[in-house]
Task: inverse folding
């Protein structure tokens, strides 16, 4: 029996992905059966099907070749799949052969990995970078602009969502290093003005930690596009769809301080009124996760301010939020 083999003949550069960055990827297949096709994934954080979720299948040409355009990634995977296979839009871990996947070939992108430039800023004694390329979050592909994150004369960090053409330009601010286990504390000015489709996420994230759900530990302020929701905040670990991985609550108007203490196998979250977690500060919500808590790795702290797709309550106007300070206690 002939064992099918997928090969690459042209591999794009190793680079952080983004909507604007594409290149040709091509290869050949030997031993394919009638009706089988090729599916391509590029890894930049998660594995993303290429070139788009609604265009995932590549026909194998009479000379056994295949070719398409692909958004850039650090690694690329070519899958030979049977008829009827439905490729997921994203995968957290590298694809493997089995079932309707007859063969898989994974290669590194060409050259030294290229990281998209960021705009450097300083906040609360740490160095951060503001994202400058588009990103897929909340069911939308949105631009992320370097001028959407800045600090003021008092040292507070401002994050902005603004209209850019027909899209909402969002903000991602990421620390330049990993802190690991410890206590993360965020003092956030009043967020009661946030529209239902706006999301403020204060989270850790490891681009290469797919096997650990990207080591994502979250404090998130949003109604997730539902104006009728009685909740506007949540603590969580990933994946969010696992029962018990999300604790929702209602955060009041005014300055709030949120924190999580992260240690092996345990993450304890607290939200209090006011600008510090001093003894006696009024507790709004508290929750402890002891199952599925990720281990520390190469995660970095991120502040995200973005928009979710919502037919019910789409975003109406520009928005801005302020983080007064960030603290880390090892």
Result:
């Amino acid at each position: 029996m002939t064992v099918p083999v997928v090969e690459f003949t042209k591999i794009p550069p190793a680079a952080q992905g983004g909507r604007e960055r594409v290149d040709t990827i091509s290869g050949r297949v030997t031993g394919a059966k009638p009706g089988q096709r090729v599916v391509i994934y590029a890894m930049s954080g998660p594995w993303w099907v290429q070139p788009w979720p609604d265009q995932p299948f590549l026909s194998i040409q009479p000379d056994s070749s295949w070719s398409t355009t692909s958004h850039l990634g650090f690694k690329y995977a070519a899958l030979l799949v049977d008829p009827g296979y439905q490729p997921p839009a994203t995968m957290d871990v590298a694809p493997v052969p089995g079932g309707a996947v007859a063969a898989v070939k994974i290669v590194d992108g060409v050259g030294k990995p290229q990281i998209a430039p960021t705009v450097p800023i300083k906040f609360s004694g740490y160095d951060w970078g503001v994202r400058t390329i588009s990103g897929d979050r909340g069911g939308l592909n949105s631009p992320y602009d370097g001028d959407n994150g800045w600090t003021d004369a008092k040292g507070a960090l401002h994050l902005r969502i603004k209209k850019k053409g027909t899209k909402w330009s969002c903000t991602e601010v990421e620390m330049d290093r990993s802190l690991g286990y410890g206590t993360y504390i965020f003092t956030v000015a009043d967020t009661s003005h946030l529209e239902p489709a706006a999301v403020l996420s204060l989270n850790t994230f490891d681009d290469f930690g797919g096997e650990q759900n990207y080591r994502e530990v979250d404090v998130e302020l949003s109604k997730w596009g539902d104006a009728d929701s009685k909740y506007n905040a949540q603590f969580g670990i990933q994946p969010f769809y696992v029962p018990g991985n999300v604790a929702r609550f209602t955060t009041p108007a005014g300055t709030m301080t949120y924190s999580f203490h992260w240690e092996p196998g345990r993450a304890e979250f607290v939200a209090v009124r006011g600008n510090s977690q001093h003894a006696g500060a009024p507790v709004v919500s508290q929750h402890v996760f002891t199952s599925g808590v990720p281990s520390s790795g190469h995660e970095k702290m991120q502040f995200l301010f973005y928009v979710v797709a919502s037919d019910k309550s789409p975003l109406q106007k520009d928005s801005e939020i302020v983080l007064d300070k960030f603290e880390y206690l090892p």
Remarks:
- The chain is about 0% helix and 50% strand.
- The CA atoms of residues 132 and 146 lie 5 Å apart.
- The first strand starts at residue 5 and ends at 10.
